[in-house]
Amino acid sequence: MTAQSRKVLQVLKGETLSPPPIWLMRQAGRYLPRIQADRANAGSFLDLCYSPDMAVEVTLQPIRRYAFDAAILFSDILVIPDALKRNVRFEEGHGPRMDPIDVSEITKLDVGPVSAHLQPVMETVRRLRRELPDETTLLGFCGAPWTVATYMIAGHGTPDQAPARLFAYQYPEAFDRLLAVLAEVSADYLVEQIDAGADAVQIFDSWAGVLGEEEFRRYAVRPVRRMIDSVRARRPDAKSLPLPRGPEFS
Could you tell me which residues are beta bridge partners of residue 143? Predict the structure, then answer.
């Protein structure tokens, strides 16, 4: 069996299948007891993301149990700010935390070490492609610039992302620069995942739903479009799945 016969890829190319391929957005999530044990053994959530042995195992567990048509790389959207040296950590009972970024620090972000920092993730992708059944699509992913930027500005998640929205209003040039940096490094990250063996890549914009219509176009649509254009310019056959959590415009 070849990559051409993977059901998810067939659908992404426009074919209609019955039954359709099935996978779960959070299929490598917290519901499997073995994942809880692996996380405890890893020492921290990021250590689990950066351990190819553990990340491969966590990714494969739902496939072994349920034979989904796609496997989703086990990682996190915040590995990008972690690679940008924003002191990312996951606190029990509180979720992700990092040092909030200010205007002066945006201009000093160093993208040079990002690829090297994320090589453990690439090793996970390579191993997954070798170990997955031939018929199983491997989905890589990253966070969209807007969603990642909200965490970098507030230092944590907030219900309405007011800190990021206020920052964008007060410092529009700095905010556009932050989105541009995130779009650049994230596109590079996706290309590396594709080269390592990902069949398609997802772009999660979990906080796009808090944006108004014009904000949505500026902060969600445009940066992701730049990312997709960048990926396709280098890998014309790459399949990208933008997944914004959409706002409701009246």
Answer: 204
Among 50, 151, 189, 219, the one annotated catalytic: 151
- Residue 39 designated active-site: yes
pTM of the full predicted structure?
A: 0.93
DSSP secondary structure letter of residue 10: H
Q: Is residue 250 part of a domain?
A: no
What is the extent of the structural domain holding 149?
A: 3-244
Site of tokens 């391929």: 21
Q: Is 130 a catalytic residue?
A: no
Whether residue 151 lies in the annotated active site: yes
- The pLDDT tens digits for 87-96 are 999 887 778 9
Active site residue 76: yes
Respond yes or no: is residue 226 known to be catalytic: no
Strands, E assignment, 156-199: none
Q: Is residue 159 part of a domain?
A: yes
Are 82 and 156 a contacting pair, CB within 8 Å? no
Model pLDDT for residues 162-219, shown as the tens digit of each residue: 999 999 999 999 999 999 999 999 999 999 999 999 999 999 999 999 999 999 999 9
The residue from 6, 38, 69, 76 that is catalytic is: 76
pLDDT of residue 200: 97
Separation of alpha carbons 113 and 84, rounded Å? 8
Number of domains within the chain: 1
How confident is the model at residue 43, as a pLDDT?
Answer: 73
